[in-house]
Design goal:
There is one protein chain. The protein is an alpha/beta fold. The protein has one domain: Rossmann fold (3-Layer(aba) Sandwich). Helices cover 28% and strands 23% of the residues. It contains seven helices and eleven strands. The strands form three sheets. It has a seven-stranded mixed sheet, sandwiched between helices. Helix 1 packs parallel to helix 5 and helix 6 packs across helix 7. The radius of gyration is 17 Å and the shape is globular. It starts with a helix and ends with a strand. The structure holds S-adenosylmethionine (SAM). The site of S-adenosylmethionine has 17 residues, from helix 1. S-adenosylmethionine binds next to helix 1.
Length: 259
């Protein structure tokens, strides 16, 4: 049975994806001209991936997935949103790159793909959409070959305490937003409901350990990965600082683990 709140998010992502494909923030045109959408952190963390099989979870319309293909990986991208997978397949054809895209809820993936991977990857805006982190970690572990690498880079969960009003870092209740704006197009109000879950860093780390992975490295960063609000600035076009400069608390974290 599909998860009812994940299905609400699926509808919302179906609604949002075209805004993203066409938004300057995603630089789809530059990607088609040969620019990689991958950022420094994941490129440095995964290094030379030529010839490796990579599973990209929650890939949206496949920009990063196809950029990993340009790095030499053999890639499968998965996303819950039908429209995103449709756009990913269109981008695949336009770019002339080879990849496989599958529409599935990450929590229901086991059985949908029957291969194992050298690398499982997900990035920038993913963990908040997962209702069950323990199950998610089992899926990650399931799809890794022995010795394979998991890498994620994402918003730091501490961010919720700096919202107005602040939210509970340890909240177990999903945050339901019926008035959300798109994170690229701040003038666009999403019609459906967005449902997000809060996961303390310890919950993510312990879920991966419990699923049988060895955590190799955790990093925290005093900058973010997109232009969050008016006044934010970027030095490199990849990472973003609030008006006051580097923050005194983490905006992102990354995590590398091995099976
Ligand atoms: C912010 S994007 C992250 C990917 C990438 N950083 C990007 O910006 O294109 C989040 C993606 O997660 C997908 N997603 C949300 N819930 C999901 C789920 N339960 N299973 C698989 N994908 C999901 C959404 O459809 C969306 O494409």
């Amino acid at each position: 049975m599909p998860h009812p709140d994940h299905e609400k998010n699926r509808a919302a992502w179906n609604e949002m994806v075209d805004l993203h494909v066409n938004h300057p923030e995603y630089r789809t045109k530059e990607f088609l001209e040969g620019r990689s959408s991958l950022k420094r952190i994941e490129l440095e963390a995964l290094g030379d991936i030529r010839g490796l099989r990579l599973l990209h979870l929650m890939c949206q319309f496949g920009l990063d997935t196809l950029s990993w293909v340009r790095e030499g990986a053999i890639v499968t991208g998965v996303d819950i949103s039908d429209k995103s997978i449709q756009r990913a397949n269109e981008l695949k054809i336009k770019s002339g790159l080879e990849a496989e895209f599958i529409r599935a809820d990450v929590l229901d993936l086991v059985g949908v793909i029957d291969r194992k991977f050298d690398v499982v990857f997900q990035s920038y805006g993913t963990h908040v959409w997962i209702s069950d982190i323990a199950r998610w970690a089992e899926v990650v572990a399931h799809y890794l070959k022995p010795g394979g690498t998991f890498f994620m880079v994402d918003d730091h969960p501490i961010g919720v305490i700096f919202l107005d009003p602040p939210q509970d870092y340890f909240s177990k209740e999903p945050e339901r937003d019926t008035n959300a704006v798109d994170y690229c197009d701040w003038n666009y109000r999403i019609k459906g409901e967005l449902v997000e879950w809060q996961h303390p860093l310890s919950e993510i780390i312990n879920a991966l350990i419990d699923a049988g992975l060895t955590i190799e490295h955790v990093e925290e960063y005093n900058y973010g990965y997109y232009n969050v609000a008016e006044g934010w600035y970027s030095k490199d076009g990849e990472y973003w600082y609030p008006p006051g400069g580097p923050t005194k608390y983490p905006l992102m974290f990354s995590l590398k683990a091995r099976k």
